[in-house]
Amino acid sequence: MKIVIAGACDIGIYLATLLSHSHENITLIDEDEERLGRMDAEADLMTLQASPSSIKTLKEANAGDADLFIAVTADQHLNLNICMIAKALGAKKTVAKIDDVELTEPGVAELFERLGVSSLIVPETLAATDIINGLKMSWVRQRWDVHNGALVMLGIKLREGCEILNQPLKQLCGPDDPYHVVAIKRGYETIIPGGNDELKLYDLAYFMTTRQYIPYIRKIVGKEHYVDVKNVVFMGGGNSCVRAVKNIPSYMEAKIIEKDEERCEELNDLLEEDKALVIHGDGRDIQLLNEEGIMNTQAFVALTSNTETNILACLTAKRLGVRKTVAMVENMDYVSMADSLDIGTIVNKKDIAASHIYQMMLDADVSNVRFLTMANADVAEFTAQPGSKVTKKRVFELGLPRGVTIGGLVRKDVGILVSGGTQIEAGDSVMVFCHNTNMQQLGKFFN
């Protein structure tokens, strides 16, 4: 597949490296030599130092022959314009990173699609959704709803009190049980488990279940005593914070601590009075945190542009008694460290944006892709096509690649957990988890 990426900023660099490791034909365009120089020397791709706004540049990059043209420069207007040009030149699909969430509203997005922009992504909005999902369930590291909650994936840190430790999964996750364990992060190791695997203390386990059994999962992992979040402190009043606060559940009260006085004034204008109290100060200041009632706060969310600051602030909040912490960790090198420090929920905008873009390059009908950053695993929602391989045999007979498991499916809006004897039908939306497997290979089972 030929992919052209315009913009060697953080998301562009991350995507180019990720896709090059999948052996795609990648061309990365940027006019800044220093940014292009940040590319991993091991990445197998072409770089073009030139302005992506130039039609001559786009032609030189063979954008017209691209299966996917991705515009992720810092300028949303440039991204929209060059996507339109690339589409006019012949690119099959285009995706533009934007900042203005209003452009994604019904009717507006369709207009841009007619103009040649196949998809719009707003990383801050995607991040805000992950933040809110993390706050809604204080005992969960990560939550992902499929088909409006017909299936739910929960990433949970297992601690003392968990009832299902040290038992073979084949005794816990049978065909009639209300959950499946689909991935395990243990230290630096990722496990796509089989029936003989066991859950261990301090594992980060990913459960697939249905919404009605969430209380049951909470009980067996020993998290019933976790207090639900009603008060939350945000540190860093950037766009991700604003979008999270605007969509925060009505039963939660929020405070925003922001160092920049001018930004505090902007936040007061951007947010309604009943949405959040804006405080000028440093979220790492213990005296300030105590003055603002950190002892009675159930969640602390660090969203500054500095990864180290966010990690340090979350550690401080935990030391002061806050159970639920969320950190924006944009430097991928710090993800494992944040996990080892027990930070809690980790949000990475590059990862989230890349997930949404990645699904566009898959040949199969894929409606959702997520990279499980903490577990170094991927999960995708494939639609089984009539006559496809997955519809001809039961799951245990399919010969799925090593490191792949099917967690569940949605059939006629009803979530169903999958076992070895399950027969997948055409039209089913199937949740596939994989580790060290090319997702395009999996698409062949569903086409």
From TrEMBL:
It comes from the Bacteria. Residues 1-123, 229-347 form the RCK N-terminal domain. GO terms for molecular function: potassium ion transmembrane transporter activity. Keywords: Ion transport, NAD, Potassium, Potassium transport, Transport. Residues 141-223, 366-447 form the RCK C-terminal domain. Pfam families: TrkA_C, TrkA_N. Gene3D superfamilies: NAD(P)-binding Rossmann-like Domain, Regulator of K+ conductance, C-terminal domain. GO terms for cellular component: plasma membrane. This is Trk system potassium uptake protein TrkA. The lineage of its organism: Bacteria, Pseudomonadati, Bacteroidota, Bacteroidia, Bacteroidales.
